[in-house]
Amino acid sequence: MSPDDGARRLVLVTGGARGIGKAVARAFAQAGDRVVIADVDGEAGEKAAAEIGAASVTMDVTEAASVDSALAQVGETIDVLVNNAGVVAGGGPLVELPLEVFDRVVAVNLRGTFTVTRAVAAGMIAAGRGGCVVNISSIGARQPTAGLGHYEATKAAVDALTRTAALELAPYGIRANGVAPGPVLTPMTAGLMSDPAARAAWESRIPLGRIAGTGDITPLVVFLASPAARHITGTVVQVDGGQLLT
Ligand SMILES: NC(=O)c1ccc[n+]([C@@H]2O[C@H](COP(=O)([O-])OP(=O)(O)OC[C@H]3O[C@@H](n4cnc5c(N)ncnc54)[C@H](O)[C@@H]3O)[C@@H](O)[C@H]2O)c1
């Protein structure tokens, strides 16, 4: 763990070793919070944490035992949880999609978000000083793309969990919101975006005309977890260059 300073918030970012999660971890650290990166790739998490000035733990969000032991290692109440770990795991039309792909995406995106929220929010309630949860969803929860139905279904479910968490945790001063990006340049999408035709097809769906960078997503995540958002809970806000308008 990083230097103990109880006055600063403790932020846990799942899947923070790279991509959106790493950028979110960096943004919170730059805002003065203490940050823990929790990633299934422990080595990459450690490397990212060293770069950012954060701490790291190895956590597989699909395994309750791994979540519990990682949180025990953190050993403190978490003030802000960012459920960012997510996968696409493959793709294809629903009639062809292998069940293993479906099960994998449900395990990481939905079961993982549930498992980590359950454990962390219980700790927040016990500590009695409130807290925030920000779930990284996707505009795919609201707009279908052929071949991504398995992934989009998990993100729609994450949005439902966000609303229930907001309702159930409000009496404890804990807020829960979501951020729903459109396509973002990260290691997850790097392969796809390196194909000029595929990239142009995605760009053509975005009124503002470009694929997001991680820096387009982080400000909203930091805002939703800030005191300025104290009356906002149960929302899922898109950051998509207008794609949901089309
Ligand atoms: N990139 C996009 O276009 C895009 C768009 C909308 C939403 N999102 C969402 O944003 C989030 C981050 O996406 P990204 O593009 O940065 O992905 P990424 O693949 O670049 O990074 C994901 C990180 O999550 C970690 N991870 C994967 N499985 C895990 C597990 N079981 N336990 C803990 N950590 C695990 C990986 O090790 C990796 O560090 C995901 O939830 C994704 O669905 C991404």
TrEMBL record:
Record flagged with keyword NAD: yes
Keyword set, alphabetical order: NAD, Oxidoreductase
InterPro entries: KR_dom (IPR057326), NAD(P)-bd_dom_sf (IPR036291), SDR_fam (IPR002347)
One MF term in the entry's GO annotations: oxidoreductase activity
Superkingdom: Bacteria
SUPFAM superfamilies: NAD(P)-binding Rossmann-fold domains
All copies of domain Ketoreductase, residue ranges: 9-182
Pfam hit, one: adh_short_C2
Family as reported in the entry's similarity comment: Belongs to the short-chain dehydrogenases/reductases (SDR) family.
Protein name: NAD(P)-dependent dehydrogenase (Short-subunit alcohol dehydrogenase family)
Species this chain originates from: Nonomuraea endophytica
Lineage: Bacteria, Bacillati, Actinomycetota, Actinomycetes, Streptosporangiales
